Amino acid sequence: MKAEPGSTSVEVVAVRAGAREVRPETIVVEEPLELRLDDEPIAVTMRTPGHDVELAAGFLVTEGIVSDFRVVNSIAHCDETQNVVEIHTEPGASGVRRPEARHFFASSSCGICGKATLEALRTFATPLHADGVRVDAKLLEALPARLRAAQPLFHETGALHAAALFSADGALLCAREDVGRHNAVDKVVGWAALERRLPLAGTILLASGRLGFEIAQKALAAGIPVLAAISGPSSLAVELARENGMTLVAFLRGDAWNVYAGAERIQFS
Amino acid sequence: MKAEPGSTSVEVVAVRAGAREVRPETIVVEEPLELRLDDEPIAVTMRTPGHDVELAAGFLVTEGIVSDFRVVNSIAHCDETQNVVEIHTEPGASGVRRPEARHFFASSSCGICGKATLEALRTFATPLHADGVRVDAKLLEALPARLRAAQPLFHETGALHAAALFSADGALLCAREDVGRHNAVDKVVGWAALERRLPLAGTILLASGRLGFEIAQKALAAGIPVLAAISGPSSLAVELARENGMTLVAFLRGDAWNVYAGAERIQFS
User: Fold this and answer.
1) Does the ipTM surpass 0.90?
2) Do A96 and A160 have their domain in common?
3) Which of A75, A225, B48, B126 has its Cβ near the most Cβ atoms within 10 Å?
4) Strand order across the A84-89 sheet
């Protein structure tokens, strides 16, 4: 069996009803990626290799580092290693928030990076109240199956997050997988940034797992009006969605699901 | 229904087979926690409130900020808010790695904080080859049910990670839940630090979700020889376990599971 890019094979002891067998097992690849902005390191993230340029592009957008993606001149792997991506911006351009060293707080669960205070967590994004898109309820219910179909690595490794962007009529625009759920979202948003499709008005983002503040914040920064997840949301994700006019759907499983914010965008026939 | 601490109730539109009902739904609370070390902010993490002092204590250990927990004089919420925890160390004590501002890289999926280079990711922890503990295979298979029984918030909200520490004979020592999987591990390790039980020789840590590098690194830093997870591991977690003599079990579901490293610690009857 040829492994997908992003997965690798290791020898394991497989235990099945007490019987043991040494055999190869496919697992997801995780490696660090360092991002450098105009030669200054700004972030290290643990990611599944692949779509690294998109990941970097998305990170710039969803973390509010560039307010206008046109100031980005180049994003590319450095010559020496695939685990470093270098970003160069237009010299002298405004609208680049260079994360000051003092502002690099750590996070042990998500990417609250470059945000210096608790108060600064709600940042830079434009509220979405004006996005008048409507989404059909039956169409929403069909999206999880489309996300699963776009998850080759998950099928192989059972250990990946995924994010998928859909148009309001349910067309799959982009799907990405990663060991980090935030990376999967950044890769999707980065795809859109590189395609000059930002802000993502009229779109739906579906996330495979739980829905915390950071995912909601990233979707908001990208201008995505409808955010849906297979699992449950956190209180802060709901709060952020309600404050900013974002539609938030969670526990989207078959025909049983909940709308936590912005229910006016969902149309029931 | 009285909500557990750590959960809250919000009004949602519940959709069930096309029918809609507005009703309260319980969701997990997520709020930022800022950690201050000797009056300097060192981290912000999104966490489920509760066991914050343990979370701070565990973070100090698993991120290698203190090499000997005895240098920690106090850990307490600040007077003004429950979302800031202040840590004070013995003045002039050695063995405190004060994260320099330059070293605070961000991470959008996990807590590689205060580690300035890709090379520095493998750090400070003592390898576990010398830990001669043995664990019975049948006992391992019984642990997931014990973890689930110790997850009141998950049952209520469906959106939480959990970590549980067991002795080699299967006794539950400590279980914690959090929106962030890394926080759940930090809370457990912090409990042990405050109980002066570090390093955690002869123990088993069971994590509810996927098993990436960061969780393996945190378990290694705490001296835990056997790490198990319900879902799949990443390549870097397996590599770290193999390099450092840690036993790594994943996909622990009923009587079908895999051993990725350190199989010599598992005893089959």
Assistant:
1) no
2) no
3) B48
4) A40-47, A31-37, A84-89, A72-77
